[in-house]
Design a protein that fits this description.
Blueprint: H1 5-29, H2 33-60, H3 64-71, H4 73-99, H5 107-136, H6 143-155, H7 158-187, H8 194-215, H9 220-253
Helix pairs in contact: 1-5, 1-7, 2-3, 2-4, 2-5, 3-4, 4-7, 4-8, 5-6, 5-7, 7-8, 7-9, 8-9
Length: 256
């Protein structure tokens, strides 16, 4: 079967994005790989494991909480948005306060964000595109899975692949920006309030996507525009806060 060019392009993009960013940032700043791998690890533990356990009870079980959330669009969207922000931003704070407590260089914050966003790209999107390519190459994935992947390949064209790639760029900007914000919250005295702010900012960007998943609105274009503008804004805010942190650290070392 002929390989879908849109699928191949998207797969190469998703695979390369975290690697290119990491190589560029390490060469530019000298950031340690420990920060990158810690970001990846904390995403797996806090978002994919702990958050998924809560979702299993609140959204997949048969109990009062699940019935309430599934029966109320507003409650469902609020829950989904805040849960993502709570677990992922708590993961960042946990990492900076414990796992990376000796890493005070500001470059670590960006490397952490690349690791967090990068593993998300690979696990949530890249694997699916890899499976589609394998199915197109004739690799057996099991009759049901192979058929599903081939059907997905037929449906993917460059506009859809482009939207998926834009979404990951927006998510990467958001994760790097929020990683910088929480880094300052963890490192700078008197700025712990930035941690709950990061949770709310995360939830704010996730809300349109959660609403779309629940009831198909707003339009995809609106969801992607909000995600892109939010990611860009958080990147700018995070850089500003990180610059302030660097200045305060430099002043502490050389008060004169």
């Amino acid at each position: 079967m002929k390989i879908n060019a849109a699928v191949l392009t998207a797969f190469l993009f998703f695979t390369a994005l975290p690697i290119v960013l990491l190589v560029w940032w390490k060469r530019r700043s000298g950031a340690k790989l420990l920060c990158f791998f810690t970001g990846a690890l904390c995403f797996i533990v806090f978002a994919m494991l702990l958050e998924s356990l809560l979702h299993a009870y609140c959204l997949q079980g048969d109990n009062r909480v699940s019935r309430f959330l599934l029966g109320s669009p507003a409650a469902n969207v609020l829950y989904a948005s805040l849960a993502a922000g709570l677990f992922e931003e708590t993961g960042r704070l946990f990492a900076y306060r414990l796992l990376l407590r000796r890493q005070r260089e500001s470059a670590c914050a960006v490397a952490y964000g690349i690791g967090h966003g990068g593993i998300e790209v690979w696990l949530l999107v890249g694997i699916n595109y890899a499976l589609i390519l394998l199915a197109q190459l004739g690799v057996s994935l099991g009759s049901g899975v192979t058929a599903q992947m081939l059907a997905a390949a037929e449906a993917i064209r460059f506009p859809a692949a482009g939207v998926a790639m834009l979404e990951r760029v927006s998510a990467m900007m958001m994760h790097i920006g929020l990683s910088m914000i929480v880094f300052v919250a963890a490192r700078q005295r008197g700025r712990l309030w930035l941690y709950p702010l990061a949770i709310l900012l995360h939830a704010l960007v996730d809300a349109p996507a959660a609403l779309y998943q629940f009831q198909g609105t707003p339009p995809v274009a609106v969801v992607e525009i909000v995600a892109f503008l939010g990611g860009l804004a958080y990147l700018v805010l995070g850089k500003k806060l990180l610059d302030q942190y660097r200045a305060s650290e430099a002043e502490a070392v050389d008060p004169a």
